[in-house]
Amino acid sequence: MKVFCLGGAGRICREAALDLVQFSDFEKITIADFDVKAGNEIVKFLDDPRVSFIQVDVNNHNDTVAKMKGYDIVMDGTAITMNGKSTACIAEAGCHGVNLNGFGEEDQYAHIFKEKGKTCVPGFGMTPGTTQMMVMFAANQLDTVESARISHGAFRPFAFSRSITETTTYEYDPALPGRIVFEDGKFIQVPPFARPRDVKLPEPYGTLPEYIIPHSETRTVAEALKDKGIRLVETRGTWPQKNMQLVRALYDWGILRNEKVTLNGVKIGVMDCIGEYLINSKEGTETELYGYALHIEVIGKKGGKRKQHILYHTHPASDGSVPGWEKLRAYTRNVGIPLSIAVQLIAKDKVLEGRRGILIPEHAFNPNDVFAELKKRGMHIHEEVTDL
User: Fold this and answer.
1) Which domain does 16 fall in, by range?
2) CA distance linking residue 36 with residue 53, whole number of Å
3) Whole-angstrom Cα distance, residue 102 to residue 117?
4) DSSP bridge partners of 73
5) How many whole angstroms separate alpha carbon 282 and alpha carbon 271?
6) In this model, does residue 258 exceed pLDDT 90?
7) CA Rg, the chain, in Å?
8) Tell me, what's the pLDDT at 159?
9) pLDDT of residue 103
10) Which of 4, 39, 69, 353 could form a disulfide with 33 if both were Cys (CB 3.0 to 4.6 A apart)?
């Protein structure tokens, strides 16, 4: 089988490509990116005869489709704002697909994937992706589910790449309609920094305040667990505290609205200017603690007894004690590896009931399959069950 790694030169997708090299039996692994220099550097880094590079520009739809044709699956590592265009290409090319974000731009192409007998899973990394697997692992042990609280801590610099800077400003856009909670059958829009909750993350991260974020888990978990009576779904997140302090200040001062100002006769978005500074500064590209932490709380009933399931995950330390997980790679590998796992599960036809079309993660994979693959990479899911 052949895999097309779109955006493969990016910091996260290159880790997914490395995982493909180390754990998959794909006969051809193509790094596809607009950046020729970075793409060829990744080919050299991966050092595997199955790996090659091709330049691609997703804005050129016809050319991208032509280059994708003949591949079995596309591993899409492009940024949030590109996912509509990238998914349109994947659908027309007749490939399976997986991306990292899952913000909904993909849904309009569901009928094409279904007609062509292909599977597309939008949003499969750490969060969304692994988080939904953790929720379903708990929910599958319960007769009914009343609430699911999904939380994560992403410990990385504010601006180690332009796409991450874009993600940050997107998620805290004051006007964003997708920042919602699910409560008593309704989706309710909330502002940035809504519903603060102290969440106990595994060491070395500790207990931190987290806030509602616009991730897809809120919608997908509500859909997946509707038959179990789900009444509340909340998705929260946090970054290093210095990052959160900065974002809060940018929000309080209205800078996240990215209004235009005129400087020396040139109009520029004020947030665009700050983003450019951060991506070229030590402060924007370094942080004290690197890695990822997930925390899931599911409450429901089993045999008439009310139970609380807490799940969290651990991974190799970022201190250099485990080769390949140093500093930023402890973050990028946490996101990239689940993307690779999802691609490999589709390639092995380990999709639930052989389903086709656009699938939410909960309807795509068996959590046990995902957890077993994570364990092979030193990433472990832990569960604590308490009677309430």
Assistant:
1) 2-121
2) 8
3) 20
4) 3, 96
5) 18
6) no
7) 20
8) 82
9) 82
10) 39
pLDDT of residue 195 exceeding 80, the answer is yes
Q: HEC profile for the chain?
A: CEEEEECCCCHHHHHHHHHHHHHCCCCEEEEEECCHHHHHHHHHHHCCCCEEEEECCCCCHHHHHHHHCCCCEEEECCCHHHHHHHHHHHHHHCCEEEECCCCCCCHHHHHHHHHCCCEEECCCECCCEHHHHHHHHHHCCCCEEEEEEEEEEEECCCCCCHHHHHHHHHHCCCCCCCCEEEECCEEEECCCCCCCEEEEECCCCEEEEEEECCCCHHHHHHHHCHHHCCCEEEEEEECCHHHHHHHHHHHHCCHHHCCEEEECCEEEEHHHHHHHHHHCCHHHHCCCCCEEEEEEEEEEEECCEEEEEEEEEECCCCCCCCCCCCCCHHHHHHHHHHHHHHHHHHHCCCCHHHCCEECCHHHHCCHHHHHHHHHHCCCEEEEEEEEC
Q: Average the pLDDT over 107-119 and give the result.
A: 95
Whether 241 and 277 map to the same domain: the answer is: yes
CA distance linking residue 87 with residue 363, whole number of Å: 19
Residues 295 and 149 in one domain: yes
Which residue's entry shows tokens 């667990």?
225
Sign of CA dihedral 339, 344, 347, 351: negative
For residues 179 and 235, give the distance between their C-alpha atoms in angstroms, rounded to a whole number: 9
Whether residues 174 and 96 fall in one domain: no
- Stretch 184-193: mean pLDDT, rounded? 95
pLDDT in tens, 298-319: 999 999 999 999 999 999 999 9
List b or e across 133-146, with b for residues whose CB sees 16 or more CB atoms inside 10 angstroms: bbbbbbbeebebbb
Average pLDDT of the residues in 139-157: 97
Residues 30 and 141 occupy one common structural domain: no
Q: Is residue 291 part of a domain?
A: yes
In the predicted model, is pLDDT for residue 93 greater than 80?
yes
**CATH code of the domain in which 162 resides:** 3.30.360.10
Tell me, what's the pLDDT at 133? 98
Q: Which tens digits make up the pLDDT trace of 334-363?
A: 999 999 999 999 999 999 988 899 999 999
Beta carbons within 8 Å of 202's beta carbon, 6+ residues apart: 293, 295, 312, 313, 314, 382
